[in-house]
Design a protein that fits this description.
Strand content: under 5%
Distance between the termini: 47 Å
Order of helices and strands: HHHHHHHHHHHHHHHHEEHH
Shape: elongated
């Protein structure tokens, strides 16, 4: 018995409506349902290239693993991109934006870029977070950092060139991914201890770039630290001899020298830094003094965020009243450190920074500018209005 084509198309339309209804329900607390479905259909109907970035073949492995559907992933991208854009907008401003044809086209192209990057991005995202909250990992800046970090790991995995900074590159990319995993699950205050380590590693990388010979000295001190903390529980005699000959003898904390004594190899270091020379703060101050050509003071920003992370790391500061504040701070720290690290890695190993013909650094900088402007506008009133929003 032949099936009536009309019945077939009617059944498909019904499935499509049910699918859209389910998507409205899943994402309804993040975005206006009608706008979400309108954007989903616009993207799927007008940007055919996106289908190349999804495996449309069905298999038993996909069935038993519960692989998410293309529609779900696209809607998550729409939510992430749109949510990034409307932070601190009033309801009237948001509605006007959602009615704008120019904005819809711009949003669709933004989503298309993120889909093209999904092999390093949303393909690894989980369907549901452990803690309830916003889908911050799908927002533009965290998404870009995730993509760059995963791409860095891929570059490093296939790299055959010798490079003294490879361990630092690996450490930075992996710690960024760990932070983003916490962000995905809305364990927001737990991001700060890892962000603190990221700032420390990034500052070391900048210093080693200026003084490549420091890497070997740093590794020697690192070996001392491993022996002292994990094996012998006492300072190795070779280290004690170096400590007795340290340049700044006014600083007597041996553990500080164990961590940072390698800075003695920089001839001009102690002429510039007299306060806390054997510390990350000393290194930060030295970099600030020797990088005066920066267009804006990166090191002032890193110092502020490092102190902030210190409070969370040692339990002096708890979960913030407004989760959005955590999103801002963690995103800024990660962008500042990882985007520059990605640049240096690509330059060192002579790798094209583009991913699927998308200049990820240009994209990241543009979207970071938006986030930073939002952060500069922050106020208690705007935070309260943002967190009271419901769709």
């Amino acid at each position: 018995m032949n099936q009536n084509p009309t019945d077939f198309f009617s059944a498909m339309e019904k499935i499509s409506r049910e699918n859209d209804k389910a998507l409205r329900s899943l994402f309804g607390k993040y975005i206006k349902g009608n706008f979400l479905i309108e954007m989903k259909h616009f993207i799927m109907d007008n940007l055919p290239e996106i289908y190349n970035y999804y495996d449309m073949q069905m298999s038993m492995e996909k069935v038993v693993a519960g692989n998410e559907l293309m529609d779900f992933d696209i809607c998550r991208m729409i939510v992430g991109c749109h949510s990034s854009n409307i932070i601190f907008l009033s309801d009237d401003e948001r509605v006007a934006l959602e009615k704008s044809s120019d904005y819809k086209r711009k949003l669709a192209l933004n989503v298309e870029k993120n889909i093209k990057l999904r092999r390093y991005g949303s393909a690894y995202f989980r369907r549901q977070s452990i803690m309830q909250g916003d889908m911050y990992l799908a927002h533009n800046v965290p998404y870009n950092v995730f993509v760059m970090s995963l791409r860095m790991n891929e570059i490093l995995h296939f790299n055959k060139k010798e490079n003294p900074y490879l361990l630092l590159y690996y450490s930075l990319s992996n710690k960024a991914l760990a932070t983003l995993s916490l962000l995905e699950d809305n364990f927001l205050d737990n991001c700060y201890p890892i962000c603190r380590a990221i700032i420390e590693l990034y500052l070391k990388l900048l210093l080693f770039k200026d003084y490549p010979d420091l890497v070997a000295e740093h590794n020697k001190f690192n070996a001392f630290e491993v022996r002292q903390s994990c094996c012998e529980q006492e300072y190795p005699e070779e280290f004690n001899e170096i400590y007795r000959e340290r340049i700044n003898k006014n600083r007597t904390k041996k553990v500080d020298y164990l961590h940072y004594g390698w800075v003695d190899k920089i001839s001009e270091y102690h002429n510039i830094i007299t306060n806390q020379p054997y510390s990350i703060n000393g290194i930060l101050s030295f970099l600030r003094a020797t990088h005066v050509e920066e267009e804006w003071n990166l090191f002032d920003s890193l110092e502020v965020f490092y102190k902030m992370c210190h409070g969370y790391t040692h339990g002096n500061v708890g979960f913030a009243r407004f989760p959005l504040l955590h999103y801002f701070e963690v995103s800024i720290i990660l962008h500042l450190a990882i985007s520059h690290t990605y640049t240096m890695l690509c330059e060192d190993l002579e790798v094209d920074r583009k991913i699927n013909d998308i200049d990820i650094l240009e994209k990241a900088e543009e979207e970071f500018t938006v986030l930073n402007e939002q952060y500069q506008k922050k106020s208690t009133e705007l935070f309260e209005r943002h967190h009271k929003k419901s769709y």
